[in-house]
Please model this.
Amino acid sequence: MSNLDQTLVNTFKGIVGNENTLTDASECWPYGYDNSRQHAPPDVVLFPTSHQQISDIVTACYQRGIPLVARGRGTGTTGAAVPVKGGVVLSLEHMDKIIDIDPDNRSMDVQPGVTNAEVQRAAARHGFFWPPDPTSGDVCTVGGNLACNAAGPRAIKYGTSRDNVLGLHAVTGTGDSIRTGVYTTKGVVGYDLTRLLIGAEGTLAVITRATLKLTPMAEIVRTLRAVYQDIHSAARAVAAIMSQPITPCALEIMDGKCIELANQYKDLGLPEHAGALLMIEVDGAADAIDGAVERVKTAAGNDGLLEIEAADSDAARKQLWQARKALSPALRHVAPKKINEDVVVPVSRIPELIDGLQSLAEEHGISIVNFGHAGNGNIHVNLLIDPDDPQQMAQTQPCLDKLFQLVLDLNGTLSGEHGIGMEKRQYVSREIDETTMKLMRNIKQQFDPAGILNPGKLFPD
Model:
């Protein structure tokens, strides 16, 4: 437990003001959650509005050894924003300004509390977008996106958060201010601390400002929906699509169980015995799009293809996406306590992953459905768990253990975009060798010598 006393609380109030300080347990309680099922109550919640305030708060915590967790809107699913050691939650929701947009240099400066959706709207007014597009984009913050290196469907062509940030302003665990990166798209002076901080889940520094790299909006987007008799046919199509020159801007997959659940939730007119579905989007110049679409359609075709449909209008495009859009509410309806893991394997090994998951489902008596970003092998594995079934609950952990080992055996990785947080930290040592882990811990020590920044996350004890 922290050493938080009234003197320190008064110090915090002097920094951010009484109105931006919560100490009552009932008011602090909601800030102990994120979108996982984990919870731990903070001792105090602070709402800074400037870089200097954050520096002063971190300095005070460093001097007293007080744990501090930076938080956006709590949409993460791994418990990364849960204050497991108590102490201070630094809610950045009031730092929600778009500081500057520079269309000529394709960049935008923002505070960490601005939402992804607000960034997209502001960029769109100038003919640009910011590539990361997580499902929670309407409410998640840029700071949260950077903390877990968020991505989404567009990552297949445009990259993750790491690939779309030029530089950062941040505060280390000692309260020191740092600036990383450059304002240009090229620069090799010093170590790349920008990419190091992105994905570090707030364990190295608190990001207070980010220079985002914007991308011009395509003139036109075309959508295809391809239905296959089995997952292996769909996976072969994914490999073929990714080996030809036209890179889709989205390539999503749903297995047969997902299609079945989506059809039950909403009549989508899909073949009853479809084994898999691909949602494919191609963007580009209007005068080249027809040829690009034909190249992708050709690659998507194989002897397992049941049907392929193309959208020729925005209305038709929305119609084709209905199956994917219906999936999340269908899963919430069937299994409100489902476990969602975002593992990644090489594209060519998706069939082996799916076969292995089917075997695990049969072995442990747990229904498993799979969908995700097929173009980069990022599969969302959903364990549909009944928390009122003690036998099923007893099988959950052994099933997860074998799932993660299967992924690593296929030369994959434990997380593609959700991060590690609390949920997967005990498995990290399986993926990262001891020497590399020691180096990472030494880096943590340099940034945060007192270990106050988001303790209990990312690495195993």
